Please model this.
Amino acid sequence: NRTEDSLLSPNRMLNIAHRGASGHAPEHTMKAYQLAMEIGVDYLEIDLQMTKDGRLVSMHDPDVSRTTDGSGLVSEYTLAELQKLDAGAWYNQNNPDKANKDFVGLKVPTLDEIFEHFGKKANYYIEIKQPSQSPGMISSLLKTLKKYDLLDPNNREGSVIIQSFSEESLQQIHQRAPSIPLIQLKGEAITKKQLEKIKEYASGVGVNAKLVDRKFASMVRDAELLLHVYTVNEKEQMVQLLEWGATGLFTNYPDRLKEVLKEI
Ligand code: G3P
Ligand code: CA
Model:
């Protein structure tokens, strides 16, 4: 009984900018998110880490060394220390063909900064990690969402999605904020029985592309769950997943998905 306009409609194909438009700009920086918004995506995907002083920041790895010029765990940095690191120069070194001087000196953004900047213009697809690794992350996330009025029931349905590989994290959110749609991430095969269990607390599954074929996609759709697939960067695979019935794709190249969706 969801309207076609809902981001959670089973008839939509959501364009989810994986770590921002991370094929074109350093992942999880304001530049990557801005670019995704210019392309016109359905969601900004945000992976959360927590600093030593309890601030939520957008970064994929628990260790800063791949995506900044620092080393060590995010949890060992205060926010002030973390924001002294360069979160963009590495991209230019790894991608000389796409290097851009504007990427040098980019900072690790806080969740507050992202919400402050994009407000309700963007939809957010936020990943939380194991609660045991970051105690307080869920409370802090819910508080931050409320602070920016992002949990208002009058907001567009699905404007914030929370995803996690951790069932425990999702169950906690389901208890504390039952109106937020949840996506259970899975990196390994899922049975029909597991899907029934997931349906008790989540709106869908977010699965590794290597697990998905026509049969699997039908099983998920027959269970009346959304099927979001990560990480899909090639147009041919986008077309195939669409045909099989995926309802959203995480992609580093949301511009390519946009073109595919225009062509079909
Ligand atoms: O959240 C979907 C996908 O991003 C999961 O993998 O490792 O890129 O966060 P990862
Ligand atoms: Ca993620």
